[in-house]
């Protein structure tokens, strides 16, 4: 079975022939590449990858197996998985299973034994595109039939995937240590690490379904609101934008990451656009424009905010002055927004960095400080009382 054939087909007709990896069958999604050399289990279980076939640029994948501690959610979310050289053995004391078996168990179709470097260069040159992995019997389908299947798939542009990845039932994580307040988290594909970091800052963390209403948020009397990462096109999330505008008008402190950054951009009145091949991995250099400090950051996004860099602009939606707080040094993409007249900020990357560097973990402290500086009647502890 290990020698079952497999083929990866891009919508432009490019084909890569290899061996089946994981479950057999077919899968369709948007082909993207991730540059992290470690953390494949966190990548696989990141809900932001829903609908995407992930190509690992690191050649050797699977040597540390899988464990029950590192997943970022309850399941694997990638549509497909592409690796060059899967490990034949598991050699880590924390492992309780192999990656291959885990992919089979969760019905994730993958392919191995292809030139992932050539594939990555193709996606960099032509941009991310629809793709399909066909393995086992599906690998033997006529090439024209496989290509037709790929080209019939929906593009990521215009897709609202929040309902697919969000929790269906609200739940709460209690604050660790001294409680300073509570935060309402809109789950658009939230990662477990994010919730842990918020709890560690003294927040009762209320995780809410993506279809929650503003009245339901108000009923919780939160000290602040948080928008998580998640998959899909921010341009297709009008309801989340309207909800966030209600939050901002109410004066609730707000922090957003990744998809949450894009939705803050839209709520402030700016546009969003699709990047040619996006940012995915744990080695993206981002500069804080205020301090000049460069951070190595973790990313997973294919869309970005269209806001003026290097100047303070006025929110087209009437929320006062706004500055672009962080910029990607590779391609000058907006990586953060800071509202100067209301308590709201966001970053495009992942300060929880699982897996990845911890250069940006201070942003959770910044959020905590902002909440303490803008107390609500619901019982947010003031900065003096929390010491």
UniProtKB/TrEMBL annotation:
<feature type="binding site">
    <location>
        <position position="302"/>
    </location>
    <ligand>
        <name>L-glutamine</name>
    </ligand>
</feature>
<keyword id="KW-0547">Nucleotide-binding</keyword>
<dbReference type="InterPro" id="IPR050472">
    <property type="entry name" value="Anth_synth/Amidotransfase"/>
</dbReference>
<feature type="binding site">
    <location>
        <position position="232"/>
    </location>
    <ligand>
        <name>L-glutamine</name>
    </ligand>
</feature>
<dbReference type="GO" id="GO:0005524">
    <property type="term" value="F:ATP binding"/>
</dbReference>
<keyword id="KW-0436">Ligase</keyword>
<dbReference type="InterPro" id="IPR029062">
    <property type="entry name" value="Class_I_gatase-like"/>
</dbReference>
<feature type="region of interest" description="CPSase">
    <location>
        <begin position="1"/>
        <end position="178"/>
    </location>
</feature>
<keyword id="KW-0067">ATP-binding</keyword>
<keyword id="KW-0028">Amino-acid biosynthesis</keyword>
<feature type="binding site">
    <location>
        <position position="230"/>
    </location>
    <ligand>
        <name>L-glutamine</name>
    </ligand>
</feature>
<comment type="pathway">
    <text>Amino-acid biosynthesis; L-arginine biosynthesis; carbamoyl phosphate from bicarbonate: step 1/1.</text>
</comment>
<dbReference type="InterPro" id="IPR017926">
    <property type="entry name" value="GATASE"/>
</dbReference>
<dbReference type="GO" id="GO:0044205">
    <property type="term" value="P:'de novo' UMP biosynthetic process"/>
</dbReference>
<comment type="function">
    <text>Small subunit of the glutamine-dependent carbamoyl phosphate synthetase (CPSase). CPSase catalyzes the formation of carbamoyl phosphate from the ammonia moiety of glutamine, carbonate, and phosphate donated by ATP, constituting the first step of 2 biosynthetic pathways, one leading to arginine and/or urea and the other to pyrimidine nucleotides. The small subunit (glutamine amidotransferase) binds and cleaves glutamine to supply the large subunit with the substrate ammonia.</text>
</comment>
<dbReference type="Pfam" id="PF00988">
    <property type="entry name" value="CPSase_sm_chain"/>
</dbReference>
<dbReference type="InterPro" id="IPR036480">
    <property type="entry name" value="CarbP_synth_ssu_N_sf"/>
</dbReference>
<feature type="active site">
    <location>
        <position position="352"/>
    </location>
</feature>
<feature type="binding site">
    <location>
        <position position="303"/>
    </location>
    <ligand>
        <name>L-glutamine</name>
    </ligand>
</feature>
<dbReference type="GO" id="GO:0004088">
    <property type="term" value="F:carbamoyl-phosphate synthase (glutamine-hydrolyzing) activity"/>
</dbReference>
<keyword id="KW-0665">Pyrimidine biosynthesis</keyword>
<feature type="active site">
    <location>
        <position position="350"/>
    </location>
</feature>
<protein>
    <recommendedName>
        <fullName>Carbamoyl phosphate synthase small chain</fullName>
        <ecNumber>6.3.5.5</ecNumber>
    </recommendedName>
</protein>
<feature type="domain" description="Carbamoyl-phosphate synthase small subunit N-terminal">
    <location>
        <begin position="4"/>
        <end position="134"/>
    </location>
</feature>
<dbReference type="InterPro" id="IPR002474">
    <property type="entry name" value="CarbamoylP_synth_ssu_N"/>
</dbReference>
<keyword id="KW-0315">Glutamine amidotransferase</keyword>
<feature type="binding site">
    <location>
        <position position="300"/>
    </location>
    <ligand>
        <name>L-glutamine</name>
    </ligand>
</feature>
<feature type="binding site">
    <location>
        <position position="259"/>
    </location>
    <ligand>
        <name>L-glutamine</name>
    </ligand>
</feature>
<comment type="subunit">
    <text>Composed of two chains; the small (or glutamine) chain promotes the hydrolysis of glutamine to ammonia, which is used by the large (or ammonia) chain to synthesize carbamoyl phosphate. Tetramer of heterodimers (alpha,beta)4.</text>
</comment>
<dbReference type="InterPro" id="IPR006274">
    <property type="entry name" value="CarbamoylP_synth_ssu"/>
</dbReference>
<feature type="binding site">
    <location>
        <position position="48"/>
    </location>
    <ligand>
        <name>L-glutamine</name>
    </ligand>
</feature>
<keyword id="KW-0055">Arginine biosynthesis</keyword>
<dbReference type="GO" id="GO:0006526">
    <property type="term" value="P:L-arginine biosynthetic process"/>
</dbReference>
<dbReference type="Pfam" id="PF00117">
    <property type="entry name" value="GATase"/>
</dbReference>
<dbReference type="InterPro" id="IPR035686">
    <property type="entry name" value="CPSase_GATase1"/>
</dbReference>
<feature type="binding site">
    <location>
        <position position="262"/>
    </location>
    <ligand>
        <name>L-glutamine</name>
    </ligand>
</feature>
<feature type="active site" description="Nucleophile">
    <location>
        <position position="258"/>
    </location>
</feature>
<dbReference type="GO" id="GO:0006207">
    <property type="term" value="P:'de novo' pyrimidine nucleobase biosynthetic process"/>
</dbReference>
<comment type="pathway">
    <text>Pyrimidine metabolism; UMP biosynthesis via de novo pathway; (S)-dihydroorotate from bicarbonate: step 1/3.</text>
</comment>
<dbReference type="GO" id="GO:0004359">
    <property type="term" value="F:glutaminase activity"/>
</dbReference>
<comment type="similarity">
    <text>Belongs to the CarA family.</text>
</comment>
<dbReference type="GO" id="GO:0006541">
    <property type="term" value="P:glutamine metabolic process"/>
</dbReference>
